[in-house]
Amino acid sequence: PSEQLLAYVKNHLAYSPQPAFVKDKNFCYHYVNDALLTQLNLTKEEILHKSDTQMYYAQYAHFYNTHDAL
Questions:
Q1: Which of 8, 17, 41, 43 is the most buried (most CB within 10 A)?
Q2: What's the average model confidence in pLDDT over 1-23?
Q3: pTM
Q4: Going by C-beta distance under 8 Å and a sequence separation of 6 or more, which residues neighbour residue 28?
């Protein structure tokens, strides 16, 4: 994602009570807000620049990636 897009997302979703994220075309996380971190019980360091296949919920990665590709 472009730096401009990430800046926009950070400014508009940082304080949202709804979980929000930005992934690249390889499904790697480039932005997550605090609501998502709380929901997943992770820190930014544990999720940024990783894909769902690298997370503790990897068994659901195919489902999430299929949904995210829409």
A1: 8
A2: 85
A3: 0.81
A4: 49, 50, 51
